[in-house]
Amino acid sequence: MPKAVRFAEYGGIDVLNVVDVERTGPGERQVLVKVVAAGINPGEAAIRRGFLHDRFPATFPSGQGSDLAGIVEELGAGATGFAVGDEAIGFTHKRASHAEYVIVDNDHLSPRPAGVPWEQAGALFVAGTTAYAAVHAVRVKRGETVVVSGAAGGVGSLVVQLARHAGATVIGLASEPHHTWLARHGVIPLTYGGDVGGRIRAAAGGTIDAFIDTFGAPYIELALELGVPGERINTIIDFPGAAKHGTKAEGSAAAASADVLRELATLIADGDLEIPIAGVYRLDEVREAFRELERRHTNGKIVLRS
Q1: From CA 31, how far away is CA 77, in angstroms rounded?
Q2: 9 closest CA partner among 53, 71, 39
Q3: What DSSP element (H or E) covers 242?
Q4: Which of 99, 102, 117, 271 has a CA between 20 and 30 Å from the CA of residue 282?
Q5: What is the pLDDT of residues 52-86, one digit of tens each?
Q6: In 107-168, which ranges are E strands?
């Protein structure tokens, strides 16, 4: 029987188990995918701990995982655009991709370009679409200056690249071990703490046009202190702060489509976007993978690989 990650109650990583599950076939306009790689995300840890119960309640036993890349195994009636054996990048809203097989809606899949490594393909959806939405939310333009908190994380590392691709000067807040990576991607790296506002002003040398927060409080307040207009501040995590100050809080849902996946995958294949991979774990190492994720010090994404 195929295996999948399940948890039967809210809690820490010890509630995660890899169990045998029934293999079912795809329904109408669905595709059965044999998962090769699936990214893990902070939101999944928050859901599993029960922190997001009011917004995203779990039904037990619960699976988890949205990101995926794999090989088409079977087509349901009416599924088009793919054939058995095709390689695909996709997503599911069913909390199901941390598994050996997953059923995916036909329109949630995009072809995997040959130049996109499996690990990057499998980690693309949540971080990629969140970064895409955040950059578009603040309307980044060529010649502007953008500040990004959590600039070396799973989402932040893509935000800074997409903002640079749009022609902006990017100032990235990150711990010092990640400064070399940021500088290599054309980002001005700054450390957290102390008079970070003063350091940002000095690095910008003028107007700060937009601020994208991928870390959480207190960066909305800092952005406002730096004179960034509220409509050009976006957070992907500090929802109370966004509600309080009237800033934006757009994330993956605003860009969750196969078309966006295809656009991002093309950037990767063309060498214009890199998804840094912080670690690769087997499915049965899911607890270790989340232990590393929840330390919040990784540069890039952590991936489960078959």
Answers
A1: 9
A2: 53
A3: helix 239-245
A4: 271
A5: 898 889 999 999 999 999 999 999 999 999 999 99
A6: 109-111, 145-149
Amino acid present at 162: L
Alpha-helical (H) ranges within 153-214 are: 156-165, 179-184, 196-204
Cα 225 to Cα 219: distance, rounded to the nearest angstrom: 10
Phi/psi at 120 (5° precision): -70, -40
Residue with tokens 């087509």: 75
Q: Which residue has the tokens 């990576």?
A: 181
Instruction: Tokens 């790689």: give the residue.
Output: 37
Question: Both tokens of residue 285?
Answer: 């190492």
Instruction: With a cut of 50, list the residues of the chain below it in pLDDT.
Output: none
Strand partners, 62: 7
Tokens 């499998």 -> residue: 122
- Over residues 233-267, the pLDDT tens digits come to 999 999 999 999 999 999 888 899 999 999 999 99
Helix (H) or strand (E) holding 31: strand 30-40
Helix pair 258-269, 125-137: axis angle to 10 deg? 100
State which amino acid sits at residue 147. V
Angle between the N-to-C axes of helices 286-293 and 42-49, in degrees from 0 to 180, rounded to the nearest 10: 100
Quote the radius of gyration of the chain (alpha carbons, Å): 19
